[in-house]
Write a structure and sequence with these properties.
Number of helices: 17
Radius of gyration: 23 Å
Distance between the termini: 46 Å
Number of strands: 13
Largest sheet: 5 strands, mixed
CATH class: Mainly Alpha
CATH topology: Cytochrome p450
Order of helices and strands: EHHEEHEHHHHEHHHHHHHHEEEEHHEEEE
Mean pLDDT: 93
Strand content: 5-15%
Oligomer: single chain
CATH architecture: Orthogonal Bundle
Number of domains: 1
Structural class: alpha+beta
CATH superfamily: Cytochrome P450
Length: about 475
């Protein structure tokens, strides 16, 4: 049964107001080395303290007391507190990497900015991207030589990058055609990707010291170079002198909005910053999700069989189907469930950290002003109260007849006003990619997986699969 937390269930204490009698505080004494243990293996960290203390416990990660939350009522309290009794509280190094014009800055402008950006990544505009997504994935998969012993994540990542740069920036970067880099301050996709890796590494630099000797310092320099690149892309798009179609890509949507209202939300600085962040977040998240999905499908032949049967029911048993439409993708309910089960069992990251601006009480537990709270999928997704037999990989749990994965229990993309802006696009690209892979290939694993654990969980670059092209 779904637990609900009504607004009146959360007691918000005003300054000077004493908490009720007979309340408790979250268990566990924060320790100085919590940050290092968490970064080394977030899954292990969460499982250990869930077992010892339950789904709510204290830590000291990233320099402050942070209460980890796993039960749905506490998660709902955290997500619904934005602009009321919580505010975003990411590490200072992370906030610097996001920049002044990210959605995490200026809480007073957050809703306005997010509402303005969402149309470029959702709904009919997203459906309009589907032919491009199909075409690029088909071309990319043709380059997978088989039979082979293939490094999975790098192979997926290459295709995802080629899918996403035109969708988000309106440009196609081709290393075989130097003209695609004309007027840009980079000369290859590898150079751009290397900048992004350095930038990402700086998000959780432990020392806010702007030096090339630190990950933070190198990340800040990479961020500046990426903004220069995004600015050059914007200038090149304007120099083309063509009418802007706001549904063509994410950048076009913002440029059209700027033309319509020059003094509105879409300043040049915001446009460049959002191009940087959306390409970064989408590329890493989607590449990681697709490679994890292929790994999980290979582990469970019965799941593979059901996915192929669902596909055959939609497009027929034979033939090389070239275009999966938005309508067909919506009918792939078992594929959707398998993607969700992959996100449940291999959640890529925690949700955004929030700081309590006021003390609150929920279910007899006091959450004190000044503490941080973090809803952790690695806890919520393995609780028997939320999921039946959580250690079992069972996509069926997300089908309507079972109805698991309710709001605040299944949180791979966060929640509240800071829920992931690109979640719909991530699922859409993953569905198209998986559909073509299921149609074209058989693959097997080559031993136990090796995962990068932090800041984003993904298969390591050297983890290989054995892959062979299917005969039509």
């Amino acid at each position: 049964m779904q637990n609900t937390t009504n607004t009146e269930d959360v007691l918000v204490l005003e300054p000077g107001q004493s908490p009720p009698m007979e309340i408790t505080t979250p268990p566990r004494r924060p320790k100085w080395d919590d940050t290092f243990k968490y970064m080394a293996n977030p899954d292990q960290f969460c499982r250990r303290y869930l077992q010892e203390y339950g789904p709510i416990f204290n830590t000291k990660v990233f320099g402050r007391t942070t209460i980890f939350l796993g039960c749905s009522r506490a998660i709902q309290m955290a997500f619904n507190g934005d602009l009321k009794y919580t505010e975003i509280a990411l590490p200072a190094t992370t906030m610097d990497m996001f920049g002044e014009y990210s959605l995490f800055q200026r809480p007073d402008l957050h809703r306005q900015r997010k509402s303005a950006l969402a149309p470029g990544l959702t709904g009919r505009v997203l459906d309009g991207y589907t032919p491009h997504i199909n075409d690029v994935i088909i071309r990319g998969l043709q380059n997978w030589s088989t039979p082979s012993h293939m490094a999975l994540y790098p192979a997926v990542e290459q295709i995802c990058f080629d899918v996403l740069t035109p969708l988000l920036l309106g440009v196609s970067l081709d290393d075989h055609d130097p003209a695609t880099f004309q007027g840009l301050p980079i000369t290859s996709k590898a150079e751009l990707k290397a900048l992004y890796k350095t930038y990402f590494d700086g998000f959780y630099g432990l020392f806010k010291w702007q030096s090339r000797l630190t990950k933070y310092g190198r990340g800040i320099l990479a961020r500046a170079a990426l903004l220069e690149f995004m600015g050059a892309v914007v200038r090149r798009r304007r120099a083309e002198g063509q009418d802007i179609n706001p549904t063509a890509d994410f950048l076009s949507m913002m440029l059209a909005g700027q033309e319509e209202n020059p003094d509105g939300i879409f300043s040049d600085a915001l446009i460049e910053n959002q191009c940087l962040l959306q390409l970064w977040a989408s590329h890493y998240e989607i590449s990681g999700l697709i490679s994890s999905l292929m790994y999980q499908i290979a582990r469970y032949p019965q799941v593979l069989q059901k996915l192929r049967q669902e596909q055959a029911n939609l497009v027929g048993e034979n033939g090389n189907f070239q275009m999966f439409s938005p309508e067909q993708l919506k009918q792939m309910v078992f594929l959707d469930a398998t993607i969700k089960e992959t996100l449940r069992t291999l959640p890529p990251s925690a949700t955004a950290i929030r700081q309590l601006t006021k003390s609150v009480v929920l279910d007899g537990v006091l959450y004190e002003q000044g503490c941080a709270v973090m809803a952790e999928p690695r806890i919520a997704h393995i609780m028997p109260e939320h999921f039946h037999e959580p250690e079992v990989f069972a996509p069926e749990r997300f089908l309507p007849e079972r109805g698991e994965g309710k709001m605040y229990e299944f949180i791979p993309f966060g929640g509240g006003v800071h829920a992931c802006l690109g979640a719909q696009m991530a699922i859409a690209v993953t569905k198209v990619f998986a559909s073509h892979v299921l149609q074209a290939f058989d693959w097997n694993l080559t031993g136990e997986p090796k995962f990068v654990q932090f800041p984003l969980k993904k298969l390591k670059d050297d983890y290989c699969i054995e892959i062979v092209r299917r005969v039509p």
